[in-house]
């Protein structure tokens, strides 16, 4: 393992590894085909302390500010071989941080601990139909009416959209552009909230993804997260860790695909010998291993910058784009090495190949990342 991890990190890693081996791997193929995993898995993850990593102790969390503890847990959760499961189980990691940081004290105390225990599910709702990565121009509007906001609009592609209990929702409370955006915490049972049918996806089958609708949805004013019209800064702050997490998902997806390809190549015979006996296969696997290693180590460097209190917008964007590119290449080659078996649903590389694609879209597309990088380097 890397020098970035302490003995405590390794203990947490082993706990997460045991959780996946015991509660997930025996069932993951079934859950993928079913398009969902049991809700009680949140409770089991909460009991194991996995959901609380990165959140304040006074709200039921552990390891606040310890970026590498979160990296260790994230890596082991990806050993489930299902990006969808990790995205669904981890939707709190993008939905809950703004609440834990900036919500009213009484709201924090009521909402955060049950989510970290796995009793409730939290999600983030920013993306809108026709909006995509253009966060600054979102249309969902919230108008203050006495001690409530009246919210109208819709969101789409929302992870845990079908069964989350709490949604951190980006809304427009002011004028056009990023200066008019706020965050509201909206509960499933608030009047005027509804969701559409479950969306079918190319990959991430085990996660539920849905549209959300707000029709004169009444939200108490104390559910404002942070200051009014200051939500864009909170969203951008949230994006930094989300993008780091997507880089982790990318190099871990690639690593698992590489391991599967190596195992297959060693036992698969062609023309009287294992296919690792052919230089073209060996060199392909070496290139894959090199790319995975570089993607992982650069992501660790970004995590170290975050651990040191820096704001590495450029580096994290680079890490995400590079790791995703590696992921797409490695999973494609892993399928190719498997031949016809790589195209079969029973093969793990088939799932990894499908799951890889969303990583270049979620958290800001490759193109958006390049624009961010361009600004940071003075272009």
Characterize the structure shown:
The chain is α+β, with helices and mostly antiparallel strands and 379 residues long. The protein folds into three domains: 110 residues, Butyryl-Coa Dehydrogenase, subunit A, domain 1, CATH 1.10.540.10; 109 residues, Butyryl-CoA Dehydrogenase, subunit A, domain 2; 144 residues, Up-down Bundle (Butyryl-CoA Dehydrogenase, subunit A, domain 3), CATH 1.20.140.10. The strands form three sheets. Strands 1-4-5-8 form a four-stranded mixed β-sheet. The protein has a four-stranded antiparallel β-sheet with strand order 2-3-7-6, with no helix packed on it. The longest helix has 37 residues. It is globular and about 80 Å long. It starts with 6 loop residues before the first helix and ends with a helix.
Structure, briefly:
The chain has 379 residues and is an alpha+beta fold. It contains 13 helices and ten strands.
Fraction of residues in β-strands: 15-25%
Order of helices and strands: HHHHHHHHEEEEEEEEHEEHHHH
Derived from helix and strand composition plus strand pairing, the structural class reads alpha+beta
- Count of extended strands: 10
The main β sheet shows up as: 4 strands, mixed
Structural features:
single chain; 379 residues; alpha+beta; Butyryl-Coa Dehydrogenase, subunit A, domain 1; Butyryl-CoA Dehydrogenase, subunit A, domain 2; Butyryl-CoA Dehydrogenase, subunit A, domain 3; 3 domains; four-stranded mixed beta sheet; four-stranded antiparallel beta sheet; 13 helices; 49% helix; globular
């Amino acid at each position: 393992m890397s020098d970035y991890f302490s003995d405590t990190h390794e203990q947490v890693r082993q706990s997460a590894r045991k959780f996946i081996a015991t509660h997930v791997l025996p069932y993951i193929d079934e859950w993928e085909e079913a398009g969902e995993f049991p809700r009680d898995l949140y409770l089991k993850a909460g009991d194991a302390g996995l959901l609380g990593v990165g959140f304040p102790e006074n709200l039921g969390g552990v390891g606040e500010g310890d970026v590498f503890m979160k990296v260790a847990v994230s890596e082991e959760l990806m050993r489930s071989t299902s990006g969808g499961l990790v995205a669904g189980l981890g939707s709190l990691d993008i939905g809950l941080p703004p609440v834990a940081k900036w919500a009213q004290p009484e709201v924090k105390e009521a909402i955060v601990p049950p989510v970290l225990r796995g009793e409730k599910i939290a999600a983030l709702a920013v993306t809108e139909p026709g909006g995509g990565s253009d966060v600054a121009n979102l249309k969902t509007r919230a108008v203050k009416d006495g001690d409530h906001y009246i919210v109208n609009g819709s969101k789409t592609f929302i992870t845990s959209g079908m069964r989350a209990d709490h949604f951190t929702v980006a809304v427009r409370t002011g004028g056009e552009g990023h200066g008019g955006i706020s965050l509201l915490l909206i509960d499933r049972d608030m009047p005027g909230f509804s969701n559409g049918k479950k969306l079918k996806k190319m990959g991430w089958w085990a996660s539920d993804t849905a549209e959300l609708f707000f029709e004169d949805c009444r939200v108490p004013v104390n559910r404002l997260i942070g200051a009014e019209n200051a939500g864009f800064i909170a969203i951008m702050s949230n994006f930094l860790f989300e993008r780091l997490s997507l880089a982790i998902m990318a190099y871990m997806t690639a690593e698992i695909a590489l391991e599967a390809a190596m195992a297959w190549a060693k036992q698969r015979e062609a023309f009287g010998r294992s296919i690792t006996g052919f230089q073209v296969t060996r060199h392909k696997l070496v290139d894959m291993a090199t790319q995975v290693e570089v993607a992982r180590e650069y992501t660790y460097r970004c995590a170290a910058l975050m651990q040191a209190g820096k704001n590495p917008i450029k580096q994290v964007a680079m890490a995400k784009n590079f790791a995703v590119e590696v992921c797409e290449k490695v999973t494609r080659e892993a399928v190719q090495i498997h031949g016809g078996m790589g195209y079969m649903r029973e093969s793990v590389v088939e799932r990894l190949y499908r799951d890889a694609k969303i990583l270049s879209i979620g958290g800001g597309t490759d193109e958006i990342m390049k624009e961010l990088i361009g600004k940071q380097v003075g272009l």
